Amino acid sequence: MTNTVLNVNGIEVIYNHVILVLKGVSLTLAEGQVAALLGGNGAGKTTTLRAISNLLKGERGEVTKGSIELRNERIDSLSPAELVRRGVVQVMEGRHCFAHLTIEENLLTGCYTRSDKAEIARNLEKVYAYFPRLKTRRTSQAAYTSGGEQQMCAIGRALMTNPGIVLLDEPSMGLAPQIVEEVFGIVRDLNHKEKVSFLIAEQNTGMALKYADYGYILESGRVVLDGKAQDLRNNEDVKEFYLGVG
Ligand code: ATP
Known about the structure:
Layout: E1 4-15, E2 19-30, E3 34-38, H1 45-52, E4 61-70, E5 73-74, H2 80-85, E6 88-91, H3 103-108, H4 117-130, H5 132-136, H6 147-159, E7 165-169, H7 177-194, E8 197-202, H8 205-211, E9 214-219, E10 222-228, H9 229-234, H10 236-241
Parallel strand pairs: 3-8, 3-9, 6-7, 7-8
Antiparallel strand pairs: 1-2, 1-4, 4-5, 9-10
Residues 15-16, 19, 21, 39, 41-47, 59-61, 201, 203 line the site of adenosine-5'-triphosphate.
Keywords: Amino-acid transport, ATP-binding, Cell membrane, Membrane, Nucleotide-binding, Transport
Pfam family, one: ABC_tran
Family: Belongs to the ABC transporter superfamily.
């Protein structure tokens, strides 16, 4: 039996009081699962992740219907900081590294509220074990590292919070296919070894379905199809409209 860790029940999201963007999105994330949230430009993937991590306010958005539960407990009104304390962390689209800080300083911003130095050092070593590239670049300013390294740094920073669930927004954006493979491979490794669950918003359907266990396809703010990654890969509509092989 699989344990559901995250439950999104029929959420509606409205921006600026008028623009209805999510029209009743439901999804679940099981313990230790990698789920992909797929769909084209503007389908509502980022909005769904932001709703879960309560980051819509800054965008003048709000959840107007539905509920979000973490292990059967409502979390819709918790602050992003409280969600991080409970193990839910988001890696934003566009990476958002601090350009003027070194890779290591960026990683350490992931635990600025903590003072347990030994634990922080252990976290850092763990991140470096998964991302050896970051270890070699630890003293480089983020601005002078590659897009792939910055994406790794953003994921590494999230890992510094010891998360149970990582919401990963468009990790493939702007990266060469080989680097995307490398990033997804590390995500899968983290999932296997550290039991971190991932919800990954992606436009790169082929790559996401290669690494995910389960997928949800969003169109205009609605989940139009969901299923095991393998079944979605073989689905004729998915092949035609999302994989370009129909
Ligand atoms: P992309 O891959 O392009 O980021 P997405 O699937 O993540 O697409 P969202 O970013 O969630 O989609 O956007 C969904 C819809 O909401 C789009 O029509 C977008 O224009 C709109 N939208 C997003 N943010 C805002 C905002 N702050 N105010 C108004 N509308 C917004």
